[in-house]
Amino acid sequence: MSLVRSKIMVGKNCPFLSNPAKLQILFLLVICILNHSAAASSLQRIVSTGCDATAWFDKKTCSCRPSIACPNACSGHGTCDHTVGKCSCFPGWGAADDVSDFKTGDCSQQVCPAARSWNTISHDILECAGVGICNRKSGRCSCSQGFFGAACNMHGCISPEQSNDRTLCSGKGVCERKKNLDENITSAIHAARIIFSCKCDSSWKVGLQANETQESEYFGVYCSKRRCPTVTHTDSKSCSATARDLSNCTGVNGGAPGNLCHVDCSGNGSCDHSTGTCTCRHGYFGLACNEKKPR
């Protein structure tokens, strides 16, 4: 014990009082001696010099052991555990909480944001939501067509930074946020999936109330299609005394009395939805094929 007493001196000449690292080692050495787990000659060397930069103090053996270098010094994006030579990467560089099937041991490449997959039935949490490619240099997703967001977690007509761009809906509608598929997500690790869709324009009033039509004039995912003109009419093919009005949508999809369904070309022709023009059946003419040729 005299060795320890000679080294643990309370005074201005004691180097350990100004060196926290050596002071910690000294404290551990005292515990070692009290447990009789190391030779005095070995301890005297360690107390005098401490473990050098290439070694670490092993509390089990009370000795300095050589440090094990981490691969690529963790690339500056992580911390090295020199006892085993393993990196603990920072978030975004392959940290334990990062969601990625690709993690380098040297923290040299980035991982991308993750979200629930659009593709799998179980909606596993995947990088770029399973619909994008991760750029390992930038940590950014390159999303498949129709998907947007940092984690490709948004789907539909638009990316958030272009919310006022009507050209995304063919200039015939506006893009609206429709549904959050993962409203109950509380984890900060992955993003919620959000669906956007176009609300298409129409020259007639759209809705479920009286004198409103359930279908809009322009339609399709990007409002790129157009319905043809029509005139409310009665189905002339029916022989029933109560001939069904083809445009009557009362009770259909919750339609109120007087609500209308759209019937292209008044039911007397075929519609080219790419242009919104009718080709009338034999015997009918007019923009809406609502006029009958005289015999």
Order of helices and strands: HHHEEEEEEEEEEEEEEEEEEE
The total tally of domains equals 3
Strand content: 15-25%
Low-confidence stretches: 1-14, 36-41, 234-244
Structural class: alpha+beta
- Tell me about the largest β-sheet: 4 strands, mixed
C-alpha geometry:
rod-shaped
H/I helix tally:
3
Q: What's the helical proportion of residues?
A: 10-25%
> Average pLDDT across residues?
77
Radius of gyration: 37 Å
Distance from N terminus to C terminus (CA atoms, Å) equals 127 Å
In total, how many beta strands? 19
Can you list the strand order of the major beta sheet? Answer: 9-10-13-11
How would you describe this protein?
With 295 residues, this protein is of the alpha+beta class. It has 3 domains: 2-65, no CATH class; 112-200, no CATH class; 204-295, no CATH class. It is built from 3 helices and 19 strands. It has helices at residues 2-7, 20-34, 40-49, and strands at residues 55-58, 63-66, 78-81, 86-89, 114-116, 125-127, 132-135, 140-143, 147-148, 154-155, 173-180, 190-191, 194-200, 218-219, 225-226, 269-272, 277-280, 284-285, 291-292. A hairpin with a 4-residue loop joins strand 16 and strand 17 (277-280). Helix 2 (20-34) packs antiparallel against helix 3 (40-49). The longest helix is centred in the N-terminal third of the chain and has 15 residues, at 20-34. The chain is rod-shaped, with a radius of gyration of 37 Å.
